[in-house]
Amino acid sequence: MLRAAELALFAAPLAAYVFWRMTFARGEPPTPRTLTLILAGLLLFGAALAWFGLHDRLPPGARYVPPQLQDGRIIPGHGA
Q1: Cα(28)–Cα(75) distance, rounded to whole angstroms?
Q2: Cβ(56)–Cβ(78) below 8 Å
Q3: Phi, psi of 70 (to 5 degrees)
Q4: Are 34 and 23 in contact (CB under 8 A)?
Q5: Which pLDDT tens digits describe the chain residue by residue (80 residues)?
Q6: Contact yes or no for 59/66 (Cβ under 8 A)
Q7: Measured between alpha carbons, how far is 48 from 79 in angstroms, rounded to an integer?
Q8: Which residue in 7, 41, 61, 74 is deepest, having the highest Cβ count within 10 Å?
Q9: Rounded to whole angstroms, how far apart are CA atoms 19 and 60?
């Protein structure tokens, strides 16, 4: 099951694109406040990606065991 943060990270680029298109559809250039919010969102997105990359990684030298099917149940992949 996807966690809410992962789902938000997945949807963030689409939401930013839709917001950007709606801003330009009115024929108005984006205001400095809008650009600041977009930049803050991109920085937050990058920080979240870095955090997930550092938080969910295996330690150096650890062996990865891929997902397996045992007795009709799926055992998720994990570090050994």
Answers
A1: 53
A2: no
A3: -130, 120
A4: yes
A5: 457 777 887 888 888 888 778 877 777 777 899 889 888 988 988 888 888 888 878 888 899 999 999 999 999 988 88
A6: no
A7: 23
A8: 41
A9: 41
Tokens, residue 65: 């065991």
Whether the CB-CB separation of 72 and 29 falls below 8 Å is answered with no
- In terms of C-beta density within 10 A (0-12 exposed, 13-18 middle, 19 or more buried), how is residue 52 classed? middle
Tokens (6 digits) for 32? 């400095």
Q: Which residues, 6+ apart, have CB-to-CB distance to 8 below 8 Å?
A: none
